[in-house]
Amino acid sequence: MTSDVLVVGGGIVGLVTAWRAAQQGAATAVVDPEPGGGAAFVAAGMLAAVTEHHHGEQDLLALNLESARRWPAFAEELTEASGTDVGYRETGTLAVALDADDRAELRELALLHRLHGLSSEWLTGRECRRLEPMLAPG
Q1: Cα 96 versus chain centre, distance
Q2: Which residues lie below 8 Å from residue 48, measured CB to CB, with a gap of 6+?
Q3: pLDDT tens digits along 46-90
């Protein structure tokens, strides 16, 4: 069998690339030397455009925010095409500090968020455990 498009990597980016190529009528093949071992596995399917923002990454932030904005429509399209609920949920990201160094880092991140007009809220440990009951008291 010959293909018009060969996608190397069966992670989310590779599979979406192959799907879009096939939708355009291209004979498409996907090869992956380590199925299930890509970035989607590491990130557990999470899109955390705000939490993953760091100093000097303004261009990446813009890309991440635009990707997050587009994701709900894509998830709906994928659910419709596959007949399977992809499990997309819009929730916040909880970044937890374990010690004083972590708290200092998260305070810097919160300041950076405010500088770029991003929504970020400082919570107490009790407030965090209310949102995530499985969070350890420490």
Answers
A1: 18
A2: 93
A3: 777 777 777 788 888 888 889 889 999 999 999 999 999 988 888
C-alpha span between 59 and 68 (Å, rounded):
14
Give a yes or no: residue 121 inside a domain.
yes
Average pLDDT value for residue range 84-107: 90
Residue 136 lies in a domain: yes
pTM of the model: 0.72
Which DSSP state fits 54?
A: -
* Residue 78 tokens, joined: 């994928």
| Number of domains present in the structure of the chain | 1
Would 23 be classed as within a structural domain? no
Residue 7 in contact with residue 18, Cβ under 8 Å?
yes
Instruction: Report the C-alpha gap between 135 and 131 in whole angstroms.
Output: 9
Residue 37 clears pLDDT 80, i.e. is over it: no
> What is the distance between the alpha carbons of residues 38 and 18, in angstroms, rounded to a whole number?
16
Cross-strand bridge partners of residue 7: 30
